[in-house]
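Hello K.,

You asked for the raw outputs rather than the summary table, so here they are, unedited. I folded two proteins back to back in the same session to keep the settings identical. This is the first:
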Amino acid sequence: MTTTNIYIASPEGANGRNVVAYGVLKALTTKFKTAVFRPAVSNHDHFTPILLNASNAGLGVALSTGLDIHQVRKDKEGSRGDIVAAFNDAMNVSRADAALIVGTDKSHVNDPTAYEFNANIAADLQAGVFLAVCTIDRWPDELKDTVRLSIEGMEAAGNKVLGIFVTGCEPRHSVSVKDTLADFGLPVWTIPQIPFTEASQADAALAAFQANVPTEEVLRAINVEIDFPITSYAFQYSLLGRAKANKKTIVLPEGEEDRIIKAADYLLEREIANLIIVGDKGAILARGAELGLTHLGKARFQAMDDENILKPMVAKLCELRAKKGMTEEQARKQLTDASYFGTMLVVLGYADGLVSGAVNSTANTVRPALQVIKTKPGQRLVSGAFLMCFKDHVTVFSDCAINLNPDAEQLAEIALQSAVTAKAFGIEPKVGMLSYSTLGSGKGPDVDIVEEATRIVKEKAPDLPVVGSIQFDAAWSPDVAATKAKGNDVAGHVNVFVFPDLCSGNIGYKAVQRSSGALAIGPVLQGLNKPVNDLSRGATVQDIINTIALTAIETQ
């Protein structure tokens, strides 16, 4: 079922905005089960209950509101994730097929970034936008400039404006206002000034709206195809939704680390994945209680000295490492390492995948997987990709974690693995084989390797869009590509960036992450028979949540 999300945004947050929101809600409920959501409101908000009385989704105020506006003002960027989570909870509970999202209200606090915040939230919630702009005390050119700047602000965040409501407009000026705004190529409706701050004024407000805005025109305006931006917050919560839709079991070997159990508690509360936490159950639950965690009891706990598990695990490890002459004594010693123990839980089928690395190094996480899980049939190597979440889209960077100096065959395999990863997360891959040369502009042995790798990729996957060798700017920017790679359909549109070696890949993703503010999720370990993913030792709780979710999706 497709959800139709509509955001009501206003540069004023008042002066007729309420009339527009109420009228659009009534129009939506003629066709859809429509929820109401307010991303940020004050504790003196009286308008949300009025909207909820007109909604047909059955939600109360608590589920229909995100955060207190005072909390948002302190940390707008940090609030976005919580607002997206609250919205998803509301939609999951209501099972609505449409949502009316009403932006921030007028306030005595003059916040110059409030409109930008509303634009970002509209993008996070993947909502089409209706603007409500007041014409009172504005000359026609001032109204036009206000609308233009409002549209530009929305489009800068990746949003699509679906229509313009001009409030406070005297009926005799309606035609001239519509003519003034005709150049924007959007539906324009005018609504006279009418007070609407109390429930007793709702009927009059609705009558004024419906007298000037036909319901069928509102529904026609929202019936358009929109290429929604994929913000980092939208992407993170799409991971959670996809993981929850087909729950898998993930083992967490580092069960006594605070960040791990906080992430586990979050996922267990929302029933996003089944979790096996390695460690002493009593000690972990006691620590969870100290941290205020209340859902850890839903996990399965696995002690490392449990002979019921350890005995078959030792036998299997000896079988898998027989060529290396592994004895039972050696196997038992090896299994005192939590990473090995967790990996063997995957091998024995108790878990579908593993996430580790908050305490252990990448080598300690990857080595057991390479030794006992091994690579997929036909794969010669394991590589590490990062999902890079930018303001309005997601890309793949690889290899940024494993292979030092891949040859042409290995580089081609990394590219093909990365294309598969992109597809797994809803990205239609367009691969760029990076170099200091664009399509022959530079020469040298390093360029030769990249161009040979590109040839191999085209041979093995003739339908995969790929360009190489190509410089990063020509891969990223259509404007640069028009000069450096004229006529190439992939250049300028690359979303899978394959770096020529580990040095450039690791530097590249970290430089982009830190300088642009992009969210880096990963590394996703590519090429293994079963999903095993590594965490940075500096991983935040949200990083761990994301990695567990993407591991669950990989197992699907």
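The second followed immediately with the same parameters:
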Amino acid sequence: MSAEATNPEAHPEARPELRRRGRTRLDLRRLGRAALLGPTSRDRLPDAIGHVAEAHRAHHPDADLSVLRRAYLLAETSHRGQMRKSGEPYITHPLAVTLILAELGAETTTLTASLLHDTVEDTDVTLDQVGEEFGDEVRFIVDGVTKVEKIDYGAAAEPETFRKMLVATGNDVRVMSIKLADRLHNMRTLGVMRPEKQARIAKVTRDVLIPLAERLGVQALKTELEDLVFAILHPEEYERTRALIAAHAGERDPLPAIADSVRTVLREAGITAEVQVRPRHFVSVHRIALKRGELRGSDFGRILVLVGENADCYAVLGELHTCFTPVVSEFKDFIATPKFNLYQSLHTAVATPEGHVAEVIVRTRQMHRVAEAGVVALGNPYATASTATGTSTATGASAVAAAPTAPTTSTTAAAGAGVPDAAADPYEERVDPTRPGWLSRLLDWQQSAPDPDTFWSVLRAELAQDREITVFRADGGTLGLPAGASCIDAAYAQHGEAAHGCIGARVNGRLTSLSSPLSDGDTVQLLLAQDASSGPAAEWLDHARTPAARIAIGSWLEAHPDRAMATTTAARAPLSVVGARGGGANAVADLPNAPVRLAGCCTPVPPDAVAGFVVRGGAVTVHRIHCAAVAQMRAVGRTSVAVHWRATADCRVTLLAESFGRPHLLADLTEAIAREGVEVVSATVEPPVEQRVRHSYTLQLPDAAGLPALMRAMRNVPGVYDVSRA
């Protein structure tokens, strides 16, 4: 982590306009000198962390700061003599990281671990010493953010470090909170690095850290990281956006006047609310510019309305939509349906009489805190009600002893992950109540990706999924899946490797293909084959979205190369069986000497209502009256001819049978048809797709009245789930 230190004045991202408004810019050089030289009495905090203590007390007035003093003294003593690349004392880095977390409202245990987060990695302090002094909880968090040794892992050190960190995050989300704050400070001070190293760090931040910040709901860190990455990877677009913002600063901004109007409306309605104008950050302005082309004055910010209770949010919404013109397409209710990263708010947009359109966000103050700080705002997720304050969450082993326990839902140990032995691991039997579905899925599939390159590439692909859906299982449970997931993904999420034998699915009660994408709220029933030797088709990889499904399918195909080849049948020609005898049409057209053909698109049979049309060559083609081709024939001006059925009852019809693939299926279907006294004129079997087979039969029936019984007999053949007219 020390490798990412630089001069904070050497890069444009360090400029004040990119930082959150209202944040005091600290002189880290002065703090560093105070840390090394300033005397500290034994009964008060060192001057160097006074800002941290002040920010912490603002969120936790009753916090016991003595543990921070001890952690700071250990960190300062351990890092003494170490310097950052910019020439600053190294202790300024853990101080800055801890201040970021303190401003977000992190509890004392997180701040203690933050002060110590580099001691094990960069000094002679050991994990055991950290545990003895500060307890197992701080020890675990510090271990979680400590990099693996590059001498042991070589080029795989970075992906294995992230694997270890994510596994630790599965047991304690505070691990990732510290990592995000650590990366933010390093990105703020990246200027003295070589350009190629800046770009490499920025790309990892963009692909991994920013998506993780989004998923954990830490918007305050995510937005600033986005701006810093934007400036490094896209300097030209960054400069254009900066110029747009600078030009707007010199113009009249309509948002303050709109905010005043909103205040007046809410005051007259008797709603107590705080109304703010929130400027957009650089990347947000850039996205709006790409979306709309020419920016309006109100596009450079949004109006934020903060209220006390959930009901007040809807009261505010009602007043806004009554007194202003709402833009209906912009309304979103994230209170009734929160985002998967804990985010809750009402979003709308209103137009003023002057023609300005302003986006408005309405939320409670608690929602605002969670929207800004995400999981950091939740404090210690393991503390009981009596230990939920900042004072008691940093007491090490005592806090762990008070934590609730529950059976773990996901294995969270990985080779080389550095998690303490189960016998000494206080996290072994407890589950983070804030752990979202995406993190549980990640912890599951990473166990099947021992190769670091596979893990690294799949991790980036997983984090690129920016939305999540919830589907219901047939047994009443739920599955959390990324948006765009298919029935294949649901199968592996529910059944693991047993999903290799999945042969079909019902979505909302209707049979569908395994490749069908799922929507939020769907109910999925997965059908598994009884044959234990069943395996996935290679085509499944084209429709699998989750890493767990892709890794499991790929592993099975590698282990069964012969079976994998057998499932790739798309290029194979359909199997056709043609009978020896053809049948004549039993329809008669009121056109002397004209040949009559029954249309293959709808295969009419007595007593279907039919219509005939003269086609090229003078022939009459007969369609069922509701066939789509009838409207097309009339539209192009084909001559209509009256058609009636002969007295004879025999007829020819084409039936489609859809089924799950299995041995002897064609023979069983043919036998069922023969038992009904029906002659097979021709049969076509299409190549199986996702273990589903489609059969097409042209049949000669002695009596059209027997058609319903024939279709029932075909449906009763095991594996056949639908029979229909062509």
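Residues 610 and 624 are 4 Å apart (CA to CA).

Happy to rerun anything if the numbers look odd on your end.

Regards,
P.
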